[in-house]
């Protein structure tokens, strides 16, 4: 069988994710099994097995006596990593622990789940419930709902679950110590991957607040300065060969005004002449 193709994101994860020692490879002290060695025989679970080995999840599984591991295949792990390119280590640990049920469920037990009208989903406790973040809410529990084909649907018990998963097949069963079930994809509770970011701190205002300039006030007509009164300068008018139109009343007024200024100019000139005599 050809080895699974790994995306560039998964390769970077392999290089950057620090190893949690070799605790997963240590001799089992709980149920007498090593989940890393068990999943290592199935190439389709290489990525899921690697992530559990690099976190403390594999060690916690080996220390249990009755456990069920819900394992997605490489393609589903790769899809999740592509969708969550900046998945922090703490969130990855929480997500993997949601897929470890603290009870034994194999294919026969899933078929025997209560069915029919009025049957309620089974509430199962996961390893995530033993962590601090899951205490006090339902994100550490899964609901197991029987499917018509004899399988089951796994979902987060917390309201607003993002992704559910269905049972595909039984991989390993050692009653009643450990069971490994293949599921269709990850079960993603709300708040594990999509975490709300804290609002940014308010920006400090400078000592001088930037205020948009207001439009300059329009002065009233009474406030406008009066232009200085100057004497009009009479320019010689060119002769027009055509006959001039009949003067109107407005023309008489202008002509009278110009005659008055002309007379005043003449009087002023005569005064200057007499003053120098």
From TrEMBL:
A Pfam short name: Fasciclin
Domain of life: Eukaryota
Gene3D superfamilies, per the entry: FAS1 domain (2.30.180.10)
Signal peptide bounds: 1-23
UniProt keyword Membrane, yes or no: yes
Bilayer topology term: Lipid-anchor; GPI-anchor
Keyword Lipoprotein attributed: yes
Keywords: Cell membrane, Glycoprotein, GPI-anchor, Lipoprotein, Membrane, Proteoglycan, Signal
Every FAS1 domain range: 32-110
GO CC terms of this entry: plasma membrane; side of membrane
Classification via InterPro entries: FAS1_dom_sf, FAS1_domain, Plant_FLA
Known role: May be a cell surface adhesion protein.
Family indicated by similarity: Belongs to the fasciclin-like AGP family.
Name listed for the protein in its UniProt record: FAS1 domain-containing protein
Name of encoding gene: LOC123409470
